[in-house]
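Lecture notes, structural biology module. Today: joint structure prediction for complexes of four components.
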Amino acid sequence: MVASLVGDPARSNMLTALMTGRALTASELAHQAGITPQTASSHLSKLEAGGLIEPEKQGRHRYYRLTGPDVAHVLEGLAGLAERAGHTRVRTGPKEPALRRARICYDHLAGDLGVQMLDSMRSQRLVRQTKQSIELTGEGKRFMAEALQIDIETLAHPRRPVCKACLDWSERRHHLAGTLGAAVMSRFTELNWAARDPAPGSRVVNFTRTGEKQFAALFGHAQD
Amino acid sequence: MVASLVGDPARSNMLTALMTGRALTASELAHQAGITPQTASSHLSKLEAGGLIEPEKQGRHRYYRLTGPDVAHVLEGLAGLAERAGHTRVRTGPKEPALRRARICYDHLAGDLGVQMLDSMRSQRLVRQTKQSIELTGEGKRFMAEALQIDIETLAHPRRPVCKACLDWSERRHHLAGTLGAAVMSRFTELNWAARDPAPGSRVVNFTRTGEKQFAALFGHAQD
DNA sequence: TTCATAGTTCGATGTTAACCGAAGCATCGT
DNA sequence: ACGATGCTTCGGTTAACATCGAACTATGAA
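The predicted structure, tokenised, for the full assembly:
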């Protein structure tokens, strides 16, 4: 049954990550879904057997993509029904609630707080988001310099964008990635506002008391 | 999550039964899905909470229908994906395999054998099936009279059709209902070809050795 | 009123499947 | 050759949920 494939939270997270049309590797998908590679592997083979995704081997990577636009269409339809029912509440994947609150996504902040930050930046007009790309406004550059002592000019990178929207598996919305996202996260760490959980391999990010307060002052709930 | 609602076999059976557009009572749906009323009640409230179906009270009955054509549309889309993947294999509901082989659906034969019978009748040109209605051919009338000593003329009924296609939950295909379906089943019983399971409340139908043989001779696997 | 039917709620049971650790290929880089 | 990385397979644990029996509510019939 196809529906039961989509029904599982972890698989659903993977599929939404693939909705962009891009092909992603198995480990990227595992990361997006917040599960280990072993578990992801099992899910991916099930999705493949169900004809929803197809793999492409490339070196030691396996890239997966949706098998076709019809799949994306049905997934959108399901999302539409969920929306209509006000049923959009996030069915979180497995494991720790702390992971949903704040965690590391590669090198930047993800989870509830990560999404909240980007939301706030949008409503404060610090960034302009057009379709797939994000751009910092003049206001935004000033803000980063003054509030966080981050010089945008130093963030340019040949292969990596400064701002990038990254899909958040626990929130199903975007948080800030790119070199700016990384810079912000490391600044948080330097300022002793937050620290990665000491447990080996953990992606949880713990905020300090003052960190929480400062974060709220800068990116507190937007009223838009 | 909407998809997980559709993913469960029992719920999926109920939904496909509702795909006709008609509203069905809770017990009818339980019957179609092959589960007890208690279980059905739980499923129905979940489907209602998910916004897929809506109830209508009428006396002591609760009629359920799909909330809209968009729901039906998404369900069709899912079925389409399943089809495309050659993934149409029946994910049966719970319980006894005997129930899937042959059982009573109100008063006629359902399950694997029920579906097989109607299939065979079609390929033998005993019936003509147009969209939603089924009609016995002249050949069919002769067949019923000779092979089963059933006189079609006596089967007319003011409120009930002689032939009717009834959706089979375990096979997802039609079997024969209506007064003819009932007549055939009671003939099978009289001829000692089959008998309802003596266990109280059981819907299982047990075929005798000779019954199996005779049935196969009349409705053996069609080669169409 | 009393009985029967339709449906729900509650509690207990059982099965399924997601999950991860550990170990096993395969591929790439050196 | 060797180690590192990406991914898979295997085994055992755990949590979620479908399932049913029994008891309860509501509606209709006698």
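Point to remember: Residues 2-84 of chain B form a domain with the Arc Repressor Mutant, subunit A fold (CATH 1.10.10.10).
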